[in-house]
Predict the 3D structure of the following.
Amino acid sequence: MNTETVTRWMHACAASIAEQRDYLTQLDAAIGDADHGTNMNRGFTAVEAKMDGLDGGTPPGRALTQAGSTLVSTVGGASGPLWGSALRRAGKALGDAETFEATQLVDALEAALNGIVELGAAEPGDKTIVDALGPAVAALRAAVEQGRPLPAAMTDARAAAEEGMHATVPMQARKGRASYLGERSVGHQDPGATSTTLIVAALERTVAEES
């Protein structure tokens, strides 16, 4: 994998989030500020433009770092700083190498997860991004360590993210805007976990196409 992998992943994220923008906003209207879809769409549209303008010699880690910085500067609410921090951490984990393998991808995504956990002070069960990304990273690491091909490992990761996303429905939110609703947040799927699942699924598709 290389910078082209990162670029195609970011384009796939942008396309998926644009397609699901209204759904994400609908989810957020129930327990948030009804702006998650709009914010994420604006952010990843800007990331697409940033990726298209990259210098040909930009390593994949630096491309991810620039994608993260773009999200921080263009996305409102909590999702911009959280995913911006995540992609910057992932980029830093990849360093300046021109290519990366499955094990480096796992480490980068784990760094992304740690960035979100540290910035958002969220734990599993808080009804946040972490409830989808945490299981995805764990499933990916387990599959890669078992020697499974990366496309199959990413399918495991996406399935784990989806399961985590659905598991947020009965949870009571303990972080973010939704936490102000208390018990009224129960019964609603978390929009952040939903967009996170779209991002993981976009990576799954990217990896499958490249293989």
